[in-house]
Design a protein that fits this description.
With about 325 residues, the chain is mostly helical. The chain contains six helices and no strands. Helix content is about 75%, strand content about 0%. Keywords: Coiled coil.
Length: about 325
């Protein structure tokens, strides 16, 4: 019995080698019904199939696995795929049907296509003389073990591929959600920054306008005060000149009264009065001319300042409009 048990795995290994040679020589064509398994992904790791030593232990393992998780397949321990989680419900249903068909030994469309593409090769049968005599119980268990291992491996591959696909889809959805959240945050920050900059520019423009208005009011007050000062000064000068003329006239009258030659005194007085009037008129004209030039210069300076302030205001408004357009875009 010990020799029978020891030599049974050699037969299984020979059968697996022949099957692997067939699969390598004739690769099946992959269609929508028979998609390729993602065996090259780093998450795919084949698990070793634990072969039960006897039928009693296999039943115990199957009952314990089904009691632990009701979604698991019997004798395998692999969880059944959840159809609602995946986006492609049609593919998941097809895969479930194919897995159940493989488990029960029913050939599916994909397996039929793959079998058609494969070239049939006869397995090398071992000679009966070289094999040790096998009992009926040991041969039945040894024949059922490789079929059961193939079914379990196929189910494991299918479930692992579906789990890998679900994980990949979940990771892609999480990445898309993170990217969308990041884009939303950047849009909100840009909108807040643009609104704050626009508000600051508006406040700055209002402050500049207030400053311009204050300066204009000050200038107007200064001009009015200066005009009043000039008018008062002219009036004082006129009064001083009038007084001086009156004093001079009184002196001339006294000189006329005192002088013997009245005509000479009158002539001298007339000349003096004419000279005084000419001087007064020339002085008044010069003063008026100077004041006019001064006022013209002040008005020019004010006009230039107003022009500069208007240009600065236009520049600020253009900048505000550009910022508003950029924020809208």
């Amino acid at each position: 019995m010990d020799s029978d048990v020891k030599q049974a795995p050699d037969i299984e290994s020979n059968e697996q080698e022949t099957n692997n040679e067939e699969e390598t020589t004739n690769e099946p064509e992959f269609n929508d019904e028979n998609p390729p398994l993602p065996t090259e992904s780093p998450l795919f790791v084949e698990q070793e199939v634990i072969k039960p030593e006897s039928e009693d232990q296999a039943e115990v393992q199957s009952t314990s696995s089904t009691e632990a998780n009701p979604n698991t397949f019997p004798l395998t321990g692999y969880e059944s795929p959840i159809v609602g989680d995946s986006e492609s419900t049609g593919e998941s249903k097809k895969s479930e049907i194919e897995v159940s068909a493989l488990f029960h030994g029913v050939p599916t469309a994909s397996s039929k296509k793959s079998k058609k593409t494969k070239k049939k090769k006869t397995k090398p049968k071992p000679e009966p003389s070289k094999l040790p005599p096998l009992t009926q119980s040991s041969s039945s268990t040894n024949e059922s073990v490789p079929i059961q291992a193939k079914i379990e491996n196929e189910i494991g591959k299918r479930t692992r591929s579906m789990l890998v696909e679900q994980k990949r889809q979940k990771a892609a959805e999480d990445l898309q959600k993170k990217i969308e959240e990041k884009d939303q945050k950047t849009r909100e920050t840009l909108y807040n920054n643009s609104a704050a900059n626009y508000q600051r520019a508006c406040e700055k423009c209002i402050a500049e306008q207030q400053k311009v208005a204050i300066v204009a009011n000050r200038r107007s007050l200064q001009m009015s005060e200066y005009q009043m000062h000039c008018m008062n000064k002219i009036q004082r000068n006129e009064e001083a000149e009038r007084r001086a003329m009156e004093i001079q006239y009184q002196k001339v009258q006294k000189m006329q009264e005192r002088a013997a030659d009245r005509w000479l005194k009158q002539h001298i007085a007339a000349q003096v009065s004419q000279q005084i009037e000419r001087r007064r008129e020339s002085a008044a004209r010069q003063k008026v001319r100077r004041e006019a030039e001064r006022l013209a210069k002040i008005e020019r300076e004010l006009a230039e300042k107003r022009q500069k302030e208007l240009e600065e205001k236009r520049i600020i408004e253009n900048a505000i409009m550009k910022m508003g357009n950029s924020s809208r875009n």
